[in-house]
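Hi V.,

You were right to ask for the full record rather than a summary. Here it is.
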Amino acid sequence: MTTAALPPDHDPMPQPPEPPDINDCCGNGCDPCIFDAHDLAMDAHRQALRAWQARQALSPADQPSKP
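Predicted structure:
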């Protein structure tokens, strides 16, 4: 089975989640707080970004041509 590389426009760079506004927090010590949820979303974003960067590094367009 051969997997063809997707063109860059089919593999867009992951975008970070929108941070919550400071005023969105109710200040009641919720568990999880909206800022905790954002931290988890940022962790997932960083992981997705690392995977995307690895795919970009392996892109056929970046590989040296064979003689």
